[in-house]
Amino acid sequence: MRKLMLAVGGSLILVTPLSQADVVGLGASVSYWDSDLSGQAATNNDVVDVENDLNLESDSNANASVYFEHPVPILPNVRLNYTLVQQSGRGELGTSGFVGIPGSVPVQSEFDLDQLDLTLYYEVLDNWANLDLGLTARDLSGKLVVQQIGGGFAVNETKVDAVIPMGYVAARFDLPFTGVSVGAEGNFISFDGDSLRDFNAYGQYEIALLQFRAGYRQMAIDYEDGNDRLDVEIGGPFVSAGVTF
Predict the structure, then answer these.
(1) pTM metric for this prediction
(2) Potential cystine with 49: which of 53, 139, 229, 232 (Cβ 3.0-4.6 Å)?
């Protein structure tokens, strides 16, 4: 993880405040993300397919964010974002089994992903075309629990837990219709075999202080923490509602 910190931290000098907000701005939003999970989890050399073997389905997904923008030069704007993904299901392991759980037996599983982002960013463009660049510190916690149903009741837990620096970019383009715009935003890091990507694209409508979005979000996590590794993708449509001041 030190190598990840150096890789992204060294890029800080590339983020310069070319434009700032004219006035103080504050906004908040909540969203629902209808996501599907695919990929693999591994402990040592044992691997399980989270989609085909475990048959995980979404239980609850939530996202909330708040941002603060200001006209003070040099100082970055601030954005906080929280994401929670919870999925569970019943499936059957392949013939090779998984970490003490024999093959071809029924299992019940739970996958939890909890992450909090602190983003510091600058407005590079602020007119009909908007562009923000910055850095994000992501507190990531992911856990997959697989338990045998019946038999010996064997249980295995695969877990990753880290604070990860990521690049941040957001772009939005106002259309020639009052209050309508399209945009995309994302966080990313790739270094020494580990990588994380989190991108979304959306359409937006604003009326008075209210802001509504609908779009598609995809997150890819390929991260190793000790003997445990998650190599998964989470994607699906989302809707959000927010207020801006």
Answers:
(1) 0.86
(2) 53
